[in-house]
Amino acid sequence: MNSSIVVIESIDKMIEWSQNERTKGNKIAFVPTMGYFHRGHLALMEMASHLGDKVVVSIFVNPTQFGPNEDLDKYPRDLKRDIDLAKSVGVDCIFFPNSKYMYPEGFQTWIEVEGVSKGLCGDKRPGHFRGVATVVLKLFNIVQPHVAVFGQKDFQQLKVIERMVQDLNLPVKIKSHPVVREKDGLAMSSRNTYLSSDERKSALCLFKALELAKKLHQTGIKNAKEIKKEMEKLIHSTPNTRIDYIFIGDSTTLKETEDCPSGTLIALAVWVGNTRLIDNTIL
Amino acid sequence: MNSSIVVIESIDKMIEWSQNERTKGNKIAFVPTMGYFHRGHLALMEMASHLGDKVVVSIFVNPTQFGPNEDLDKYPRDLKRDIDLAKSVGVDCIFFPNSKYMYPEGFQTWIEVEGVSKGLCGDKRPGHFRGVATVVLKLFNIVQPHVAVFGQKDFQQLKVIERMVQDLNLPVKIKSHPVVREKDGLAMSSRNTYLSSDERKSALCLFKALELAKKLHQTGIKNAKEIKKEMEKLIHSTPNTRIDYIFIGDSTTLKETEDCPSGTLIALAVWVGNTRLIDNTIL
Known about the structure:
The structure is a homodimer.
Chain A: E1 6-8, H1 11-23, E2 28-33, H2 39-51, E3 54-59, H3 79-88, E4 93-95, H4 99-102, E5 109-113, H5 120-124, H6 128-143, E6 147-151, H7 155-167, E7 173-177, H8 197-202, H9 205-218, H10 224-236, E8 241-249, E9 265-272, E10 275-282
Parallel strand pairs in A: 1-4, 2-3, 2-6, 3-4, 6-7
Antiparallel strand pairs in A: 8-9, 9-10
Helix pairs in contact in A: 6-7, 9-10
Binding site for ATP (chains A, B): 34-41, 151-154, 180, 188-191
Binding site for (R)-pantoate (chains A, B): 65, 157
Pathway (chains A, B): Cofactor biosynthesis; (R)-pantothenate biosynthesis; (R)-pantothenate from (R)-pantoate and beta-alanine: step 1/1
């Protein structure tokens, strides 16, 4: 538990804070977020506190990872609440930069992670992972962490970041945390706040479809198409839903496979009303 | 003058060497090169030795910045000679990585600097600046320099790097060194070794065209088209030459201009026989 927490808005001051901590020999653990914390975020922060001497959490609703018709403007925000929650799990510093300074006029440099950005959410949200990789690299250069923690709920994002770190020789270790769920199984997401009470019920179909897939796999069904068909059936029978994609394939290359050996990734995105939810599991 | 010089091939060992120097409080000045040193390279190294406590020079003929029909295979190489030359100007460490480890199987992450990579060499060598920006970012992450020195001869490259450093909040200062020339004015380049003695004479047309442009500008001609026409005339009258481009425009945005206020960039690329040479000046 940490009684004091620093909130830094300036990029230069953040660099200075981190530089100062590094000079003192402190190991910095970093959790990049878009804010509006739920238990999933707090679990990442708690994990970070075991990995480093100082925990930095960034809150930045990154415009460059939203498509033109996506929910950038309505994305939920509550800085005061976030600060209190972060404080409650011992976070030392919140970095809360302004978009004007993260992307000043004339900004023109982008990170493209080619292979693992394709398929899944990459195909459905063009430019999304370019925006994610670019902002994460910027945040790494500003916060200068020794280790950074990402949630496995955004599985493809995790793979994009891991690949970027490896390819660009970034001096930071990436750690990941399993999906944190509500009691009934729904994966925690800031976007769950968009759901009406009926939609909240329907939203459980993602988890249910993943559980069904696991059960089928356990009973000996190893054919991806067959598993996918059963998942589709389950979701189609749920009101207010529309499948965006169901992916079954290799968890490293993110290429689809026909068979489902142990370690296979199943990931899906489903529209529930006007809210797009994602979830995944490893068989 | 430095009597000992370290040559490091391993990426991990280079990171360790730099980390060690940083921990000791030493400031690292870095000169990324493709080797086959001439006086231009040595001038960058000498500049670096005034900017840092330790000078690191990388020698890496970066395959990703060469096009499929370019001179990657015949690019001149002589490590032994390079080590001796670097030693003579007090370089502390040469980083000489292997392409297999810089770009291992599955490599897929690229840096795109959009605006300033367009036009000039960017249009003539598609993918060139993507390769340059990517390898320079990798080298920065491995060598961890406080400051890096680039030559102004590759003016567009300098602008791409400056833009990348600014946009990605990289913790490194970029310094540049003026074009270093042979006695008669030919800009130093490793590619000058490709020239036959007749071509060597023709190669002077780049410098002559730039001098002509300056003279015209001084006499009051401020129209870019007019200046370009006179430069073209001069080069066309030189045997064995073919103009790749002549650019007259803004030295920051690298956009062409009609007028030539003071500070205007004139840059050109000319084929002399089978060798493509570049040069530039600021009015």
